[in-house]
Amino acid sequence: MKQRTAILSLAAAGTIWGSSVALSKLSLAWLGPDWLTALRVGAAALVLAVIGRRHLRRALRPQIAVSGALGYGATLLLQNAGIAQTSVSHAAIIVGGVPALVALISAGLGRGRASWIAWLGYAVALLGIVFVARGGGGGASSAGDLLVLGSVVMSAAMIVAQPRLLDGQDAAAVTAVQFAAAALVTVPVALASSGAPPVPASAGPVLAFAALALFGTVLPFWLFAHGQKQTSPELAGAMVNIEPLVGAVVGWIAFGDPVGPFQLLGALAVVIGILLSTVPWERLTVAGLQARLQARLDVI
Fold it and tell me: Which of these, 3, 72, 97, 260, could form a disulfide with 182 (CB 3.0-4.6 Å)?
């Protein structure tokens, strides 16, 4: 039951993140990438601090703060800078590289080894990403894509490190401390590069930012942290592939990004890749079914 709840939490987080790419794009009409990052994590830190207030003191650890400054602050700065220079579809789809990077980092650190079926799933999903990216997208650029790719590498490293940081901790409190540290890093960067935040010219970008801070930040990061407490980094990383799929669909529908047979085939490949890399296929084999049946008989 806990495993199922964790997977649902990860899936919900990935779905919400997919829509947050569009909210970030809309928010950039008011705030630059630096201030968007600073205010986003700062607002989310306040909300999560209230939610996890009973466990904040225990979560105030140097390693948790450093992970937030780098894993969230620097990562979101790169991501927002990339989104400002590329299309919604491209930015969302590049995130599809996270699962393979998570598996590679975990294997390199000796913390886990993905099955060959999971690696096949990563490959199929990445192939789908290539197909989707063939369409280009409104405002796509190589520089923007590379910035988003840099944020993806840092995000993968964060996913690998997060389970140890969450061990014995409250997910909301840990995320609040991490976001607060991210705000301490990003606010000075924003002040140095852009000065004070600009006055919004209209209400639309402000509403988009409010939705991004609450719905697109507090909820998914909290859900993802909750899910990571019960699952492996590889499984958590695989569920991130829901984000680019949802983000691409939002880009196609809301922003008019190009879509054709290659993009649709790529979206299908991403779904198949997610299934291959997350379903415990070994439990569905004859040997796996026999083992589960024997375990039930032993209990009886």
Answer: 72
pLDDT tens digits, residue range 213-267?
A: 988 999 998 899 888 888 878 778 777 777 777 877 777 777 777 677 877 888 7
Which one-letter amino acid corresponds to residue 113? R
Query: What DSSP letter does each residue of 253-300 carry, written as one string?
Result: HHS-----HHHHHHHHHHHHHHHHHHS-GGGGSHHHHHHHHHHHHHH-
Q: Report pTM.
A: 0.74
Are the CB atoms for 107 and 114 separated by under 8 Å?
yes
Q: Which tokens belong to 128?
A: 């789908």
* H helix and E strand count, the chain: 16, 0
Instruction: Report the alpha-carbon distance of residue 165 to residue 229 in Å, rounded.
Output: 9
48 with 175: CB under 8 angstroms? yes
Mean pLDDT of 114-123: 79
The H-or-E segment that residue 179 falls in is helix 171-194
Domain ranges of the chain: 2-299
